[in-house]
Amino acid sequence: MAKDEIVVMYGSQTGQAETIAETIHETAEEHEIKSTLYCLRKADECFKIVSEENVPVVFVCSTTGDGELPGTARKFVRMIQRRTLENDYLSKLHYALLGLGDSNYSTFCGGPKTLQRSLKKLGAKSFYSSGFADDGTDLEMVVEPWIEGLWPALKSHIQTRQKDPVMNGQHQTDSEMSDKMKNINLSTVNNNSSENAALEMDKKSENGKVENERVEIISKDDHSFETDNIGNTVLKMNTESSLLDLSKVSEGTLPPAMQPYLTVNVIENQEVTLDPSCENQDVTFDHPNENREITFNPPQFPSVQYPLAASDKFHSVTVKSIKKLTSEGAVKTALCVTLGVGEEFLYEPGDSFGIVVPNPTNEVDWLIRRFKAESFCDKTIEIEINPQTKKKNAKVPNFIPKICTIRYLLEECLEIRSVPKRTLLRTLINFTASESERNILTQLCRKESMADFIKYIREPNLNILDVLAALPSCHPPLEVLFEHLPRLKPRLYSAASCLKAHPGEVKFVFNVLNFDSVAGRVYQRKGLCTGYLESLFGTVLDSGISIDLPKLTIFKTKNESFRLSPLLDPVVMIGPGTGVAPFIGFLESLKLRKTETGKCPEAWLFYGCRNKNQDFLFKNELESFVENGVLSHLVVSFSRDTPPKDGTKDPKYVQDNLELYSNEIFDLLWRRDANFYVCGDAKNMAKDVRETLIQILSKKMSLEHAEKHLKTLVKEGRYKEDVWT
């Protein structure tokens, strides 16, 4: 390979690491550095490059589960972990690593750190300090400065290599590069406590289609928004956004806008029918001048490309039953759905599966009107690379079909609910007429204004509709959305059943999520998938009438780290709310084990909800498991029930009951080799549970020893989490 060339390798689970790697690959040319891009899924090819070529390698690796490697990177890491390799096997390799993780999980950036340890063990040397980006705060807080600092470090390394090809030990050490990164961090990121907590280099390693709706747009700018009668439900939008607080811009550096690179051509007199899970392919017209329908029949996807690396194939499944688990008056509505999956869909208790859903029709219609695309949104379009683009290595994103319709793209391909990245906001400046609105975008995009971006965009979880509604003079072309919005990802749910107990079926539980129009969100919405499912099942639940329901498209994802142990060691399950779902499968499996062998481990379940009589999920089933001896201890807490009249305090949360049973929990943690399983909210519950367990241990040992012991349990696989944010 040429001396001015680098190789970018990525391991990605949901596509984020892949997108970042592509950005590095594309930006390299701007710095006069040649780049080649590889997915670590091509393990043999990647292994050959890192072991035989004297070329710098930039790794971008995400984390899945609780500190695990993404599926695309596992084979490669197994290859470099082979015991037959000498300790200096990769001594010629000089690398930089960017890891993605989430500090809400017990093992932050475990996957990238495993990769790094394996590289270093074989003698590989880093020419640039590793970066670990935290999705629990904002990935961009680390990703942006890390990529910015990569180029001077890389050029310095290349110059050193050109002077001495064998390096002669003159590479920059981790400590030297760490000092450089500190300077870069201070100059590019505001001195904000939340940001500094997330920006750690080598110190801290990673839901609906609503039909028959009426859209009512409320705005001071009548020419930008119109009222469109579609049906009955009302979607209200307004421009009273907190973004307006940013109309006064401060001093700072505005990064250059990304070069536009796509063009959309309307193909007259053609219609196209698309499979909802297709990747881009070339479609040829036998008779381009005839008015004929073209059916798009893509081949089965390779498992790594869409939608998750852990998926094997799609399944079209029937809805067999729907059961409402909560009673009237409950704050949230919880539904249990039974799907008929047939004989090919195999899963274990603890596994999850993804549901493929479209974006809400009313939101898609709003975007179509906003972009003035009503007259051609259902016509066939062809998406191509703009021949006049200055963007290097431009290509149509692989989740966008080259032949499709605008409506199809917005409904099925693009994550219109995603938080817009600052690169998108920077591009919007070029299409905004109002000076005050340009100032808002400028303030959000400045390198020194990450704190404002987090406060006004990331924390309230705004999407592109919120932003455009607050900026009525902003009128970008549709291509901007196609270039910047990520792929629409399926939503994952834990299996709430055991396949052996329910052959050909899988159950799952969900709460219908509601998001109010506050803190910059200019319209109320429900969760993408939960709102979609509620719209499908609402008629059945309200009327009790059995109707033909549409089939759902699902795919399986294995969660091998969240498995019941085959041994008889005690099992402790902690899962409030819908977090109890996988434990229903666990308990069904234990019941079968007891029937078959006569033996069953001691099993604890710490469960919590708001009200005993309103949202105690699976109450009858859990009490039945206690009666038949499968569940040894059912410990429940109710956070909103009326306190006892005698003045005593009942436990409100699962961690309160853990403390109440602290002696037993200590023995289970310290003496009895129990397996702990935690499922539910990552930001609050999971963290509180970890802290409570450490406090229980620290009553009989030092705090440092207690923290170390819990880390040991995680490392040994005896403390497992299946949590979400």
Would you give an account of this structure?
With 725 residues, the protein is α/β, with parallel strands linked by helices. Among the domains are: 5-198, Flavodoxin domain (Rossmann fold, 3-Layer(aba) Sandwich), CATH 3.40.50; 571-724, 3-Layer(aba) Sandwich (Rossmann fold). 32% of the residues lie in helices and 19% in strands. It is built from 21 helices and 26 strands. The strands form seven sheets. Strands 1, 2, 3, 4, 5 and 6 form a six-stranded parallel sheet that branches. Strands 17-14-21-12-13-18 form a six-stranded antiparallel sheet, with helices on one face. β3, α3 and β4 (94-101) form a beta-alpha-beta unit. α2 (43-52) packs parallel to α3 and α8 (361-370) crosses α9 (406-413). The radius of gyration is 27 Å and the shape is globular.
Poorly predicted regions: 168-235, 274-312
Compute the average pLDDT: 81
- Strand residue percentage: 15-25%
Helix share bin = 25-40%
Termini separation comes to 43 Å
CATH architecture of the domain at 5-198: 3-Layer(aba) Sandwich
By DSSP (H or I, 4+ residues per run), the number of helices equals 21
3D shape: globular
Q: What class would the helix/strand composition place it in?
A: alpha/beta
Largest sheet: 6 strands, parallel
